[in-house]
Amino acid sequence: MTFDAGRVGRLEDDLVIELDCGSTREFFERGSAVPETGERLPLDGVRLRAPIVPKKFFHTAGNFAVHHEELQKVNWSHPVHKGIVFFRTSTRSSGRRTTSSTRKG
User: Fold this and answer.
1) CA-closest candidate to residue 85, choices 54, 55, 57, 52
2) Radius of gyration (Cα) for the chain, nearest Å?
3) Which pLDDT value is given to residue 66?
4) Cα(19)–Cα(27) distance, rounded to whole angstroms?
5) What is the DSSP letter of 95?
6) Whole-structure pTM value
7) Where does 5-105 have alpha helices with state H?
8) What is the pLDDT of residue 5?
9) What span, in angstroms and rounded, lies between the C-alpha atoms of 3 and 47?
10) Nearest CA to 15 among 35, 38, 49, 44?
11) Residues with pLDDT less than 70, the chain
């Protein structure tokens, strides 16, 4: 389990036993062979987090109507299907364009 600010642990009854590794992903990559740090915390005293920070996100065209309208305005050459899906890496930006302060013109 991941808790607080990215710490890794395992649950035993109502105690979180902290493990000596940098992430839950590392825990699994090491085949669960990770020593304990010795710290034990009450479960109700920690904040649980997502177990693994994803490397990729799976997206669907959830806002299909808006995409369809946008593409009609620019005379898009291919149909947009409601079942469209794609992957995006977690390090990719939101896709919003920003103006660089060094841009000339």
Assistant:
1) 57
2) 22
3) 76
4) 9
5) S
6) 0.53
7) 24-29, 64-73
8) 87
9) 5
10) 44
11) 53-54, 57-64, 81-105
